[in-house]
Specification:
The complex is a heterodimer of chains A (343) and B (452).
Chain A lengths: L1 H32 L6 H19 L2 E10 L5 E7 H6 L1 H8 L1 H23 L9 H23 L15 E3 H4 L8 E3 H23 L1 H11 L1 H6 L4 H23 L9 H16 L4 H18 L2 H4 L5 H16 L14
Antiparallel strand pairs in A: 1-2, 3-4
Helix pairs in contact in A: 1-8, 1-11, 1-12, 1-13, 2-5, 2-6, 2-11, 2-12, 5-11, 8-9, 8-11, 9-11, 12-13, 12-15, 13-15
Chain B lengths: L9 H27 L11 E8 L6 H18 L25 E8 L4 H13 L5 E4 L3 H14 L2 E4 L16 E3 L4 H16 L4 E7 L2 H16 L3 E8 L7 H8 L5 E5 L2 H13 L6 E2 L2 E2 L1 E3 L5 H7 L7 E4 L8 H14 L5 H20 L4 H8 L3 E2 L7 E3 L6 E2 L2 E6 L10 E7 L26
Parallel strand pairs in B: 1-2, 1-3, 3-4, 4-5, 6-7, 6-8, 8-11
Antiparallel strand pairs in B: 9-10, 12-16, 13-14, 14-15, 16-17
């Protein structure tokens, strides 16, 4: 039984990593700009499609027809030659193999630009509007973004292979001195967890230990006073929106081998991530991270058949049940601050 | 002399009798034939007749939906006398002339069902009530099929199901106005269990992951019954939500459950995701109970095999049809479809195409679009040349009885389409079963409900 529970715990950490990364970005935007951004899930999706685009570019092929061989319907058989491998040989093959992690390099500038354009172009016009209007406009944006992706890449999920070296499962049980093959876990999921820890740590360190981060934190606490000191806080907040988009995008890129990207993935994650933010406490970065992992772990345990035998469908509703209980006991969420989203 | 009063002459009796027969028998038939024109839903009055295509173009089964759409477009071209004629040339017996149906050109309207039953039902309602569809067809999920079939029964419109594999479609939820060409989960169990026992032995412990809706339930039950009858033990059967995407939390308990076989009762993108993730968890490289751990996917298609890539190699499943079958019908359809779209047809495309042709042929044979007559023409109809050998549209449950394929992921594909092999063909007699075992009631064909 220990092995089963431990594996579900690992699963929870893995799921929680994705929830925490998206919730982190959501909270950054809400904490700095005061905007409830329902298009944040779409940024996660854009990141995932950066990986798709990057791989499609790397796997562009030349197609020639072989008139000697015919298909069952009588057409000449196509001979496909990948361009990158033809040009760069083994290096090209390595590039294709590592397309997912390498596409982080594409996603960072792309997501930064998307974030800044989105904030300057649309979001800034809604700063002083009620939250309901912000939700409406960002939700509309999310639908538009989803439809753009559907029009360009089609409605079907597009699988993204992980590097061959990371395809297997790690024998964690053997690492811990147990029997081999008792606790095995996919390597890429461990990579994703470590990646999430790295990104979360970097964002927190950036806010904590840099002058830029200090100004942003000061702005989050008292925007007017920081502005009165002659600091252009709006520009810094715009950059924070861009950084939040980059965090969501990177999370999306690295999630693609676990979940083939589709135009619906933004919405799928958005709802859960909002619950995470609410449970963690609106505007609280540590709250969002803690709630992300907590709900990921609970969702994972709720999927066990031993539990489902007593509570059918519990895996589908567990996070909402937890949200209800948390909000009844702690109306501001786990680490919510007084005055945030309160009349 | 008194004049003899003569009785009626023989000629008079014959003439009167004949007139009586005509008056009481034939003439009313002629009138009622005219009356049908006014008394059924969407009776085509102009020069065209409209099919309603209910296709899952988004959602978990979207790939199948896209392929079905291609097949319907091809079927409609062929029915209208365009293209190479496809299976019109090989269907036997056939009343199709290649000039539409009963002289009317076939056109279509379509709706994206999103792989959701409620959306499918709403789409079918719209196509019947607004667009005047004479027949509804399509779908890649049994949930959709059962919902739409029930609607069609209420509205008096024939439903020619697309890909639906649940026993319930022609079992407990069967309807007089619904017809299924595709095989079912029970037949998958009959076909695959002996192959599994031969390949993996009779001492196996199976763990089922099952899509949580009608198809998943009936497939789980059918495969459980068939494998347990051969000596396998079922360790656990766990339901997973349709379109779950991430199955990791359902897969981890498999590792320490004592099972040595994982049976994935998933289809479409769900199967691609669950199989891929199972392989990521190292299940294909694993030993359990002193045996090689195995994965079985009782129903899969070439579209799913392409999506799953390397992971599908060597995995057993069943299929309704496969494009590289050697018969004339399969060759003709593969040739038409490949020439039109540059890839071979899937089993979803095949069943969609065949259903469109069978409906058209039934109308031609009935000489009318009046649904009860078309239903009579389909019930008990035996045909050949459509790729599955001699096939019977069984009157008792509207299930097509034909051969079933056991397929296996190709270990050494020679091209991008060569993703699975036909491992064994199970003949119609072996795949046969008593329609009474699933219960249900077809209901009446008449009086025909009025849709508007």
């Amino acid at each position: 039984m220990f092995e089963v529970l431990f594996l579900q715990f690992l699963n929870g950490l893995d799921k929680g990593s994705a929830y925490a990364l998206i919730a982190l970005g959501l909270t950054l935007v809400f904490g700095t700009l005061g905007v409830v951004n329902f298009a944040h899930g779409a940024l996660f999706m854009f990141g995932a499609f950066c990986a798709v685009l990057f791989r499609q570019l790397l796997t562009l092929e030349t197609v020639t027809l072989d008139p000697e061989k015919l298909s069952p319907w009588g057409a000449p058989v196509e001979i496909r030659q990948p361009l990158v491998q033809a040009w760069f040989g083994d290096v090209g093959a390595v590039l294709v193999n590592y397309s997912v992690p390498l596409s982080l390099l594409l996603s960072i500038p792309v997501m930064l630009i998307i974030g800044i354009v989105m904030e300057r172009g649309i979001i800034k016009h809604f700063y002083k509007r009620p939250h309901a209007e912000q939700i409406l406009v960002t939700f509309g944006l999310a639908i538009v973004f989803g439809e753009i992706i559907k029009a360009v890449f089609g409605p079907n999920p597009i699988p993204q292979p992980m590097p061959t070296e990371l395809r297997g499962a790690a024998d964690i049980g053997a690492w811990l001195g147990m029997q081999p093959n008792v606790i095995t876990y996919p390597l890429w999921r461990l990579v994703y967890f470590l990646f999430a820890l790295g990104v979360i740590g970097s964002v927190l360190a950036f806010l904590q230990f840099t002058t830029f981060g200090m100004v942003v934190r000061a702005g989050m606490a008292d925007r007017e006073t920081v502005g009165a000191l002659g600091i252009n806080i709006d520009r810094r907040f715009t950059i924070m929106f861009g950084i939040a988009a980059v965090v969501a995008g990177m999370a999306g890129v690295m999630y693609t081998p676990l979940l083939p990207p589709s135009y619906t993935m933004g919405m799928d994650f958005l709802v859960i991530s909002f619950v995470v933010v609410v449970v963690g406490g609106m505007g609280s970065l540590p709250g969002a991270i803690a709630a992300g992992f907590l709900l990921g772990i609970l969702q994972s345990f709720a999927s066990m058949h031993q539990l489902k035998a007593f509570f059918p469908g519990i895996d589908q509703v567990i996070i909402y049940l937890v949200a209800v209980v948390v909000l009844l006991v702690l109306p501001r969420g786990l680490m919510g601050r007084r005055g945030v989203m309160e009349a | 002399m008194s004049e003899l009063k003569r009785g009626p002459s023989r000629r008079h009796v014959l003439r009167t009798g004949l007139a009586g027969i005509i008056a009481s028998g034939v003439a009313p038939l002629a009138f009622s034939r005219g009356a049908w024109a006014q008394e059924f839903c969407n009776n085509p009055t102009g020069g065209t007749v409209t099919f309603g295509l209910n296709l899952p173009l988004t959602g978990a089964y979207a790939e199948e939906g896209a392929d079905e759409q291609k097949a319907y477009e091809l079927a409609i071209q062929h029915l209208n006398g365009e293209g190479d004629g496809g299976l019109l040339n090989v269907l036997k017996p056939s009343a199709l002339k290649g000039n539409g149906i009963l002289g009317k050109k076939v056109q279509y309207v379509s709706s994206d069902s999103q792989t959701k039953s409620d959306v499918a039902r709403a789409g079918a309602t719209r196509m019947i009530e607004r667009d005047g569809a004479i027949m509804i067809t399509g779908g890649s999920s049994s949930g959709e099929a059962i919902a739409v079939q029930s609607l069609c029964q209420e509205l008096g419109v024939i439903f020619m199901a697309g890909l639906t594999h649940s026993n319930d479609t022609t079992g407990k939820d069967k309807r007089r106005y619904g017809f299924r060409h595709f095989f079912n989960a029970y037949q998958s169990g009959i076909a695959i269990a002996p192959v599994l026992a031969e390949a993996y032995g009779k001492d196996r412990r199976a763990y089922h992951l099952t899509a949580d809706y009608t198809w998943g339930w009936t497939q789980e039950e059918s495969i459980k019954n068939a494998t347990e009858a051969l000596g396998w033990e079922t360790v656990q059967a766990v339901r997973t939500p349709l379109g779950a995407a991430d199955f990791s939390q359902y897969l981890t308990p498999v590792l320490n459950s004592g099972a040595d076989v994982l049976i994935l009762n998933h289809y479409g993108n769900d199967m691609v995701n669950s199989l891929t993730q199972a392989v990521q968890f190292g299940m294909r490289d694993r030993q359990a109970n002193g045996k090689q751990f195995e994965i079985v996917v009782p129903l899969f298609s070439e579209l799913m095999a392409k999506g799953a890539g390397e992971n599908i190699k060597g995995i057993f499943g069943t299929s309704n049809w496969h494009w590289n079958l050697p018969d004339e019908g399969s060759k003709a359809f593969t040739k038409s479809f490949g020439a039109a779209y540059g890839s071979p047809p899937s089993q979803a495309a095949h069943t969609a195409y065949v259903q469109a042709l069978l409906y058209a042929d039934a109308c031609e044979r009935a000489g009318t679009f009046y649904p009860p007559e078309v239903i009579k023409a389909l019930e008990g109809f035996e045909f050949d040349g459509m790729g599955n050998g001699k096939t019977l549209y069984r009157a008792e449950d509207h299930q097509c009885m034909k051969s079933v394929l056991v397929v296996r992921g190709n270990e050494n594909p020679t091209n991008q389409f060569d993703v699975l092999n036909v491992f064994k063909e199970i003949d119609r007699e072996t795949a046969n079963y008593d329609p009474a075992i699933f219960g249900g009631d077809l209901g009446a064909a008449e009086p025909v409900p009025q849709c508007r």
